[in-house]
Design brief:
Largest sheet: 5 strands, mixed
CATH superfamily of the largest domain: Glutaredoxin
Strand content: 15-25%
CATH class of the largest domain: Alpha Beta
Helix content: 25-40%
CATH topology of the largest domain: Glutaredoxin
Order of helices and strands: HEEEHHEHEHEEHEHEE
Number of helices: 7
Structural class: alpha+beta
Radius of gyration: 20 Å
Strand order of the largest sheet: 5-4-3-6-7
Number of domains: 2
Length: 219
């Protein structure tokens, strides 16, 4: 395999609405595999390295919000290419220094198997760390969303939670959500696909119709 081909393989990305790459891995909660969480939503997120300040803030906020995610049927899973011993020491350090317990598993992806499958390694950013990735996987095991951040910028757990709720809402009700949508806001009704349906839409009293292609409704 050429150097260029090898780099392409390292940086290839999974694709939305296709099965998320399967994995079996060592974690702080013991061996886990993606199939263990079939029937649940999964938020899989990577961090560049243990014992780093930005990653520590992110991990603690995910921990603080864990119950909110769990109430939505979501399993949080963290990952970096550090060893299991480093993960254990970091979790204990966070408990000691910040009084925050990490209730979800951290994958120790020392051989980069999972990181490679999910396109977490970006040589232009670092040859020794995963970038900050978030993958939302639905109960059927399909990849529904992915977000990438650079090493220097921490993620917003608020936004990740908002995205998760939005995905669950659009899946359950076959609608779309507008910019900045939050639970309780009006949703967007998908546009009609025929002229008769477009004409009928203007008469639908259950919709707030601006034009034939743009209509909102309450859930």
């Amino acid at each position: 395999m050429s150097e260029n081909t090898s780099e392409q393989a390292t940086t290839s990305l999974p694709r939305l609405l296709e099965p998320a790459p399967a994995f079996e891995a060592v974690s702080t909660h013991g061996p886990i595999k993606l199939d263990d969480f079939k029937g649940k939503w999964v938020v899989l997120f990577s961090h560049p390295a243990d014992f780093t300040p930005v990653c520590t803030t992110e991990l603690m906020e995910f921990a603080r919000r864990n119950d909110e995610f769990a109430a939505r049927g979501v399993q949080l899973i963290g990952l970096s290419i550090d060893s299991i011993y480093s993960h254990i020491a970091w979790v204990q350090n966070i408990k000691s220094n910040f009084d925050v317990e990490i209730p979800f598993p951290l994958i120790a992806d020392l051989d980069t198997t999972v990181a490679t499958a999910y396109g977490m390694l970006h040589p232009g950013a670092s040859n020794t760390a995963t970038v900050r990735c978030v993958f939302v996987i639905d109960p059927e095991g399909l990849l529904r969303a992915m977000v990438y951040y650079p090493l220097t910028n921490g993620r917003s757990v608020d936004e990740i939670f908002r995205l998760l709720v939005s995905l669950q809402t659009t899946t359950e009700h076959a609608v779309a959500t507008p910019e900045g949508w939050k639970e309780g806001d009006d949703v967007i009704q998908p546009p009609p696909l025929t002229v008769p349906d477009a004409e009928q839409r203007r008469k639908d009293t259950g919709l707030e119709v601006t034009d034939w292609y743009f209509a909102k409704r309450k859930l």
